[in-house]
Structure formats: C-alpha cells, structure tokens
C-alpha cells in the first residue's frame, strides 16, 4: 500500500515536471519568435544603430546558447528530482521487504505456538 502511494506520488511529480518542461519549451519558443521578429524588423538598438549581419549572428548564437543552458539546467533539475524520488522508492521498497520478512517470522512463531498448544491439549 505504501509502495503504491509512493509510486502514485512519483507519477504525479513526473507529470508535474513534464508540464513544467513543456511550459519552458513554450516560453523558449515565444522568446525565439520575439527575437526573430525583432531581427526581421532590423530593430534599432542603442543610439539608433541598426544591427548589422555580424551582430544579428552574434545575437542568434547568444540566444541559442542561452536556450541550451536553460534546457540543460531543466534536465539536470529533473534528473536530480527523479534520482531523489527513485532513492525514496527504493527505501520504501526495502522497508516493505523488511516488514514482510518480520511478518513471515511472526507467522512461523504463531504456527509454532499453535502446534505446541495443540500437542499439550491434544
């Protein structure tokens, strides 16, 4: 039962992470679209200077680098959370096995006591 609850929690957490990542992708696409539109319109920068081709390329590369960094950080964060959740899941699973072992021992002890009682009265 505890295992199922933890598994459900992990699935919810994973869904939440997927949604957050999807939102991050959408935000990146919005930023890229904004940048693209700005570059297409030869956006005026400081003191009315237009971006030349080299500056546009540098800006595109900077945005791409930033996008990759954001995605990498997001993946690292997701991996960290997933690893923590997997460790919790393994701990819970080990706890379940330990409890099952204790239950088996107690069942054997009860059976032994019942047999002893039966022999005395039987």
UniProtKB/TrEMBL annotation:
MF-aspect GO terms: kinase binding; microtubule binding
Coiled coil: 21-116
Keywords assigned by UniProt, alphabetized: Coiled coil
Listed PANTHER family: GOLGIN SUBFAMILY A MEMBER 4-LIKE ISOFORM X1 (PTHR18935), JANUS KINASE AND MICROTUBULE-INTERACTING PROTEIN 2 (PTHR18935:SF7)
Protein name (database record): Janus kinase and microtubule-interacting protein C-terminal domain-containing protein
